[in-house]
Predict the 3D structure of the following.
Amino acid sequence: MNALRLAPVWLAFGLMAAHVWRAGWAWPALVVLAAPGLTLLRRPWVPRLFRACLVLFAAEWLRTLWTIAAERIAFGLPWLRMAAILGTVALLTGAAALVFSRSALARRYAAAGEAP
């Protein structure tokens, strides 16, 4: 069941890996693609790491939206649909950070910080 709860996080990392790959950065893309494997670790730092990454990813999507929209506007091309798509991706990526606040996942990672 935790896999279903973590699916938005894994999807956000997959989309960011594709974005980084498209920019021509193969090694960073592979790191981003492999990073969700860390969700298997029951460590208290895991939710903090993934929240920070997801917030940074959302900021990158907004930066990309801004850059592409500015180019398209400058050339007189349509840009509204692209802005809606990238804005939605940014919103969903940021919202994926909230899955670690859900009770089941919060318990999973909080319990790992307790002494055995």
